[in-house]
C-alpha cells in the first residue's frame, strides 16, 4: 500500500499526518455537530489514499473500507454517530438474521459510508488499522475497448493447449492479471494436484470450469474416503453451540435430515411425503429427508429442494445422498453422491 498515510494523533485531538504541512488542526467541517467532539488517538492508522484526499471531500459522502482488530468498537462508533446503514426489510420473503458483532474477533473489515471530513475520526476508533478506498470490480472487456480475452493454457507437456482463440471469452478479462493467472499459465503451472480452500460463503461446482474439481478425502481407512472436502465454520459453530441446521437456521449450510419416511406398501412412493424412490435401495427401509439450503437452487427450481439420504450398502449406514435438482419429486433420475 505505497500511497498509504501512517497517521498518529496526540491527545489534544489534532490529527498529525505526513502531508506537506505535517498537520491537520481541524478534522471536521466547521458546521458539523461532530466538529468539537474530542478524540484521543493511541494507534497508528494507514490511510490510502493519503488523509488529505479524504479531507478534501469535506461534506461529500464517501465509502471507506476499514480494516480493524475491533469490529465491535467500530460498530458502536457508527451507531453513536448514526452511520450504520439502514436494514432492508424482509418484504421479498427473506429472513432477517441478527448479527452478533461482539463475537466477531480477530482482524475484520467493513465498508463505512460517511462525510469525507469525518474519515479522519476513524483513527480514534479502537482497533482501526487501515482506512482505504473499497476495491472496485475488475475492468470489463467492453469498458476496456478489447473485444475479449484469449488465453492459451499449457497443460504441462509443452504442446497441448487448453483455450486459445476459440475458448470462451470472460467479461472480466482483467481478473486473470489481477490474480496472477497469466504469469502462471506462461510458466506451465496448471494447478494440478493443488487443493484450494475457498474462505468465503460458498462456491458453485456446477460451473463448467469447476465441475468435478472438488477436493476429496483420499484415505482408504476413512469412512469418508472419496467424499468431497467441505467445511463451513459458521454452520459448524451454530451446530455445536445451538444444534441449529437448515431450515431452522436459515443461513446454515448444514441440512437437517433427521426426518424419516417409509415405503411400507412397496409402491415406490414414500408413505408420508409422497416422494418417488422407485429404483432406489435402502437396507433398513428407513429413508431420511431434508431440504437443500442453497437459496439460488431453490429459486431455480421454484420451490424447496428435497434431499434424500440412504443406507444403500449397509444397514443404518447412511452414505448416499440424492438431491431432487429438477424438483419433480422423483429421486430415481438423480445422480447419487457417495
Averaged pLDDT: 76
- Tally of DSSP β-strands: 11
End-to-end separation: 46 Å
- Main sheet makeup: 5 strands, mixed
Structural class: alpha+beta
Proportion of residues in helical segments: 10-25%
Task: Please explain how this structure is put together.
17% of the residues are buried. The two termini are 46 Å apart. 14% of the residues lie in helices and 15% in strands. A hairpin with a 6-residue loop joins strand 6 (152-154) and strand 7. The chain has helices at 51-56, 71-80, 141-144, 174-178, 181-186, 233-242, 295-301, and strands at 5-7, 45-48, 61-68, 108-115, 128-132, 152-154, 161-163, 259-261, 287-291, 306-310, 320-323. By secondary structure, the protein is an alpha+beta fold. Among the domains are: 5-86 and 98-132, no CATH class; 141-186, no CATH class; 253-323, no CATH class. Mean pLDDT is 76; it is low at 1-42 and 141-163.
In short, what is this structure?
Helices cover 14% and strands 15% of the residues. 17% of the residues are buried. With 338 residues, the chain is α+β, with helices and mostly antiparallel strands.
Walk me through the topology.
Layout: E1 5-7, E2 45-48, H1 51-56, E3 61-68, H2 71-80, E4 108-115, E5 128-132, H3 141-144, E6 152-154, E7 161-163, H4 174-178, H5 181-186, H6 233-242, E8 259-261, E9 287-291, H7 295-301, E10 306-310, E11 320-323
Parallel strand pairs: 2-5
Antiparallel strand pairs: 1-2, 3-4, 3-5, 6-7, 8-9, 9-10, 10-11
